[in-house]
Amino acid sequence: MKGSKIKLTTIILAIILIIMVGFLGIYTQVQNRMENQVKSYTLSQNLKGARVVELKVSDEQKEIVKNSEGNEVSDASSLTDDEISQKGYTKESVPENPDEVKTKENYIKSKEITEDRLKELGEDEYYVRLNEETGSLYVELSEDTGTDDVVTNLSSTSKFTVTSELTGEELMNNDDIQEVSVLTGSPSNSPTAGTAVYLSIQFNKEGTKKLEEISTKYRDATKDTESSSDSETSEGNTTEENTTEGNTTETTTVDESGEQSETAGNVILKIDDEQLMTTTFDQVIRNGLLQLVFGQASTDNDVIQGNIEKAQATATLLRNKVMPIKYTVEENKFIQSELTKENLQQLAIVVGAVIGVILLAIVIKFKLKGLLIAISNVGLIALLLLLVRYANVMISFEGLVALVVVAALNIAFTVKMLCLKEKLSAKEAIKETYKKFFIITLPVIIMSIVFIFIKWVPVASFGAVMFWGFILIAIYNLIFTTPLLILSEGKSGGVNNEK
Amino acid sequence: MKNKKVIIAAILGIILIAGIVMAVVKGFNFESIYTNAQEIELRLNKEFNINDVQKIAQEVFGKDVSVRAVELYNDAISVTSKQISDEKKEEFVTKINEKYGSELKAENTEIHTIPNLHLKDLLKNLILPFVISTSLILIYQILKYFRLGFGKVLLKTILALAIAEAELMSLIAITRFPVGTTTIALILFTYMFTLIGITSKYEQELQEIKAQDEED
Predict the structure, then answer these.
(1) Looking at the complex, does the CB of residue A34 fall below 8 Å from at least one CB of chain B?
(2) Distance CA A63, CA A94 (A)
(3) Which architecture, in CATH terms, is A2-38+339-492?
(4) Could you report the predicted ipTM of this complex, rounded to two decimals?
(5) Count of CA atoms in the C-beta half-sphere (13 A) of A243
(6) A440 contacts in B (CB within 8 Å)?
């Protein structure tokens, strides 16, 4: 009898401790102020706020330089006006977006491409709105450390071109690309330099043919092509032996310091009208695979990671279609959620009051056992609040609704247990409650497991909270609620128990 | 019993038809941040109370107005409403100046147009999770309640889920309940609640069959 009293008190104290930590936290003094040591909630866009970016159809003019044949000269940015006139070139000012591209069709296409990019960039909650009259895009994104990089990529057209430096002729473009990936490896010309990051572009059938022709025409005649895989050639144009997942593939790597061939000149690789490199080829590329070095090889993990992220972003841009419209970032700001902290507190008070009334009714109906059940229910909510924080569940408004649903389900579970206990023994009542509850809620458990794997935050948050809620209902009630009921037998003088 | 079912079906049918009519004729009542709206941004450069600004905004623009703080320092506000005229903008700026002693000028405050967020853009994110989870749940229910009939379980579950969601959307359309922040939560809740309801109904029917078997 005394032992059961101690057990009962211990369980109640443990639940009270959970309640205090879950609702209030653990405060310690940090530099003259009290700081909660319990992990904060990870809030989603509809509770925290969102980065809002407005992309406007660019109405700017760009200057282009044309040669005597009327072709655009690709590498004219460094030429002075005198040099332009000496070479017989002409300078023209043209709009970034000519009238013929400013169509509703292109606006819709731009919206779809933006959505595809955001998806590929790993954004888990984004909304893109289109003003069909002006073509402006209004993008809402989750705010985190990578948001600025994502925003930078949004206004890019992702136009990839390989052009001849001498004639300005476009030799290859996005249509020739089949797949773009990011690889890491040690540069063969300097294996001790650390890890280099490569943007690997696999061209399609047509592109492979073009690359072979280009690499033949724009080959650096001063280099010995046949032995290039073993020898270090000048200025960093090397043939690499890259091993990826156990497969050794011979590919050509070029970097920014290629020497100018005396025959056909250099080729210029551009992304989004920005020159990536000017180069020649060491050897004829027949496998349609081009690997571009991204940044310098390094042994510093942060540097490597930074290079990987930049290369990944470029790969994402190249994987998607070219934006038919050139956009400029008009607005870029963080807007807090409409649901303020005070709104959420008010909501919590209302929900808490409703749950409180229900628990009070249980106490009135079931007396001591009702009181124990009420304490146990509050403990479960507190433990769930802790669990979602440490399980890194992103809490959205939908997640909050799931929290309330779990609380309601647990009340139903424990009341069912109490009701059955009036008719059956404690063990039988517990067994029967578990059986009935989980048979009926199994479809919802299946639903919550599926939802966890969905990338869209509102659904994932709802699923994750429900999932952890079900786990807690199963385990917590076994550890806390059922012993409470069994130990309270003697106190309340139950008659139908342990038959 | 049969009469009760007919009455329930009739009520559901009326709600559904009324909802469809309302949605077609008047559309849904989107929250201002989800519809074609206009926005002004004021940089007060001093801290403000969002509830006070909200009150002023509601006085000027009416009930359907959204006030949100811009950036983290609580010194700038974004006000979004379905329609912001120059007069209303001036009135709002004047009231804000009176309240916070600022010297903002209405002519320096630009009215931005925010395009609407299509309902389909919001709902398309639900298709994949609903299709996968409903398929798995159907497999479970068909296996567990095969004694109730394969076709019956399959049809009943799909119909129950479809009707429940359609009724929800109809009620939203009829009551002019704002579509926005709470809509997805309501859809998910209805889906979950219907699943629990239909499963407990199957369980009850299965128990009745088992009891009948025992009697026989």
Answers:
(1) no
(2) 6
(3) Up-down Bundle (1.20)
(4) 0.91
(5) 3
(6) 196, 199-200, 203
